[in-house]
């Protein structure tokens, strides 16, 4: 005898399955789509799609198994489940500027030289590798390093004319769409770009650029707080900020000021998480050793103090610096390609660091999904 199964019954069963990150059930979160039931004399198959909120979700198989279990518990072990797992990055952004960009993520630090551009580049590449559509704006007028890190120092963005408007076309590399203040001003002239000219160029990157559809648009901000920060939050609603720090106390004090800038009531941009860069040094020839040159756990302490997620720590290793200088972020390299004597050790170190960036990128995507599910949309700031 065939079992009587209805769409309502399937939804009831699946409403007992929680998304482990978002801590709400899949039905409430609107993640269940395309339910259909195939009933034959001796077997019943239910089909449905689970739409995950992050690309390449690591919990995919767990969620799939829990769905199957819920259907079996409600009906019978003999019911077959054909579950399609897809993803659709969520958004809460509104407004006329960049409506096709789902999430704008500011990458900030209190101090210069903590590796903000390195982290932003690698997160952008790592998320693009999961199939997400990603863009990156290098707004660091004091030292635009993205052109070096993506080996496109002489690149000039294209332009398209629409009536009397000029639309900028970003440059694309490693599946990331890129624009940099460095494309407009030769490095030695960067100094004259401080102030209103830089802010106006940056505004054009947001307002007059054809970014197309993007899941994540990263903004690599200058260190500290600046006019560029204000231009950003005044021009577009920002999904959230990622804070990059090194562990030492002096860095943390500056970084705290950066955090407070975003979280002050007038600005109100949520912090998506803290990343500790150069957390420890591991020499290639002693891969098991960790030397905490700048102190330990500074990033974790900062995250705890501000009650925001800690996204992970990146070690200080030669391969990251070499990759940045060579114009291919380490996550975009399939393996270590130098010709050093200790090649096997360097390959292992390279692999470990690449995996670390991928894990941090995944945690960031989860943090964005959580922020979009739980918090109100950010609004562009109006300062008087
Ligand atoms: N984890 C790391 N291991 C080794 N070298 C690193 C690491 N992170 C960054 N670097 C190197 O440190 C230097 C500064 O990094 P980066 O330009 O990313 O910092 P930044 O915070 O963006 O700097 P700025 O304040 O000038 O914008 C670069 O040469 C980069 O390759």
UniProtKB/TrEMBL annotation:
GO terms for biological process, alphabetical: iron-sulfur cluster assembly
Keyword list, A-Z: ATP-binding, Hydrolase, Iron, Iron-sulfur, Metal-binding, Nucleotide-binding
GO MF term set: 4 iron, 4 sulfur cluster binding; ATP binding; ATP hydrolysis activity; ATP-dependent FeS chaperone activity; metal ion binding
Keyword Lipid metabolism: no
Leader sequence residues: none
Gene3D superfamilies found in the cross-reference section: Fe-S cluster assembly (FSCA), P-loop containing nucleotide triphosphate hydrolases
Top-level taxonomic group: Bacteria
Subunit structure: Homodimer.
Protein task: Binds and transfers iron-sulfur (Fe-S) clusters to target apoproteins. Can hydrolyze ATP.
Name used for this protein in its record: Iron-sulfur cluster carrier protein
Organism: Bernardetia litoralis (strain ATCC 23117 / DSM 6794 / NBRC 15988 / NCIMB 1366 / Fx l1 / Sio-4)
Lineage of the species this protein comes from: Bacteria, Pseudomonadati, Bacteroidota, Cytophagia, Cytophagales
């Amino acid at each position: 005898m065939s079992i009587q199964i209805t769409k309502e019954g399937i939804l009831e069963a699946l409403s007992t399955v929680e998304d482990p990150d978002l801590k709400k059930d899949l039905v409430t979160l609107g993640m269940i789509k395309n339910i259909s039931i195939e009933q034959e004399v001796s077997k019943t198959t239910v089909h449905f799609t689970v739409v995950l909120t992050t690309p390449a979700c690591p919990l995919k198989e767990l969620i799939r198994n829990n769905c199957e279990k819920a259907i079996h518990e409600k009906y019978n072990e003999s019911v077959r489940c054909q579950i399609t797992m897809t993803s659709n990055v969520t958004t809460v952004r509104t407004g006329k500027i960049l409506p096709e960009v789902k999430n704008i993520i500011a990458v900030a630090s209190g101090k210069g030289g903590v590796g903000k551009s390195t982290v932003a580049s690698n997160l952008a590449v790592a998320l693009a590798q999961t199939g997400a559509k990603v863009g990156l704006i290098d707004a660091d007028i004091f030292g635009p390093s993205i052109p070096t890190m993506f080996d496109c120092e002489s690149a000039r963005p294209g332009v398209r004319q629409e009536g009397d408007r000029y639309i900028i076309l970003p440059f694309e590399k490693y599946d990331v769409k890129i624009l940099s203040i460095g494309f407009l001003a030769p490095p030695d002239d960067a100094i004259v770009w401080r102030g209103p000219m830089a802010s106006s160029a940056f505004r054009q990157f947001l307002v007059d650029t054809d970014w197309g559809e993007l899941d994540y648009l990263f903004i690599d901000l200058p260190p500290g707080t600046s006019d560029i920060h204000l231009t950003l939050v005044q021009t577009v609603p920002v999904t959230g900020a990622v804070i990059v720090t090194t562990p030492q106390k002096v860095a943390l004090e500056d970084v705290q000021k950066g955090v407070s800038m975003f979280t002050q009531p007038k600005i109100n941009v949520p912090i998506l998480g803290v990343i500790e860069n150069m957390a420890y040094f591991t020499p290639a020839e002693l891969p098991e050793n960790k030397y905490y040159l700048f102190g330990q756990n500074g990033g974790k302490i900062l995250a705890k103090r501000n009650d925001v997620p800690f996204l992970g720590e990146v070690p200080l290793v030669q391969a990251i610096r070499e990759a940045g200088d060579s114009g291919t972020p380490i996550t975009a390299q399939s393996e270590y390609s130098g010709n050093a004597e200790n090649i096997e050790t360097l390959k292992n170190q390279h692999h470990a660091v690449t995996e670390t960036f991928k894990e941090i990128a995944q945690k960031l995507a989860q943090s964005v999904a959580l922020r979009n599910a739980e918090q109100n949309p950010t609004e562009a700031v109006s300062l008087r």
